[in-house]
Amino acid sequence: APPEKVAAARGLVQYLAAARTSSYRLDAVREARPVGSPDAPWQAYGVPVEMLCLSGRLGFAQAGRERLFVGGFDVEVAQKSKIADPVVFACFDGLQAVVSADAAGERVHVRLALLDRSVLGFRSVPSVSPDLGSVQLPDIEEVVVRRNLLMKSGETASLGDGPTRMIPGRGACQTRLSIR
Predict the structure, then answer these.
(1) Cβ(34)–Cβ(171) under 8 Å?
(2) For every residue of 99-143, which 3-state class applies, written as one string?
(3) End-to-end Cα spacing for the chain
(4) Region 166-178 average pLDDT
(5) Mean pLDDT across the chain, nearest whole number?
(6) Which residues are CB-contacts of 11 (< 8 A; sequence separation ≥ 6)?
(7) CA 129 from chain center: how many Å?
(8) Rg of the chain's alpha carbons, rounded to an integer?
(9) Torsion of CA 11, 13, 19, 20, to 10 degrees
(10) What 3-state DSSP class applies to 14?
(11) With CB atoms 3.0 to 4.6 Å apart as the test, which of 23, 37, 60, 154 could cross-link to 17 if both were Cys?
(12) Cα 72 vs. chain centroid, distance in angstroms?
């Protein structure tokens, strides 16, 4: 979203959070390094995905983009003519998370459901009819993380490996995820 709309939404959530007894900000952090380079240092990939939530409520956050592709054709045959309209599908490339956080004494009980999906590319498949164009199939890799964590304020917890990504200028990269 445009920065001014993100700032307005953040302001609204912070205003609502102030009226509650507890509010929490969690960041999903992604790091990457080139595939096949286990000695290469991990580097931040993108910015941390900010998840704001109120005690006793669910929070949702996502960062990424929707990718469109022609996945088929709607064919209509009438009076010896054929009309083929492309059917466009969408797939999400990025991170989506649902989170809740509640005070648990000195710690915070965090419940997290996170999907990190990577579209590595598209492959073209010829259609069954020579009159139609080819269709595209996305090559998707995804990781689903479901965790219950007891965390201290400021602590970072590893969530494990994320999906392989094609990062412009860096090529194929392995990723890992953490939450703080």
Answers:
(1) yes
(2) EEEEEECCEEEEEEEEEEEEEEEEEEECCCCCCCCCEEEEEEEEE
(3) 24
(4) 91
(5) 87
(6) none
(7) 36
(8) 21
(9) -150
(10) helix
(11) 23
(12) 25
Cα separation, 110 vs 125, in Å, equals 44
Position 18 scores a pLDDT of 62
> Tens digits of per-residue pLDDT, 29-39?
999 999 999 99
**76: its two tokens:** 């209509």
- Cβ neighbours around 28 below 10 Å, total: 24
- Give Cβ neighbours of residue 10 (< 8 Å, ≥ 6 apart): 50, 52
Quick one: tokens of 150?
A: 């007891």
Cβ–Cβ under 8 Å, residues 3 and 10: no
Burial class of residue 65 (count of CB atoms within 10 Å of its CB; 0-12, 13-18, 19+): exposed
Q: In a 10 Å sphere around its CB, with 0-12 CB exposed, 13-18 middle and 19+ buried, how is residue 59 labelled?
A: buried
Is residue 77 over pLDDT 80? no
For residue 1, with 0-12 CB atoms within 10 Å meaning exposed, 13-18 middle and 19 or more buried, which class applies? exposed
Evaluate whether 30 touches 78 at the Cβ level (below 8 Å).
Answer: no
The pLDDT tens digits for 112-159 are: 999 999 999 888 888 777 777 788 889 999 999 999 999 998 899 999
- Report the C-alpha gap between 73 and 122 in whole angstroms: 17
Cα 56 to Cα 22: distance, rounded to the nearest angstrom: 9
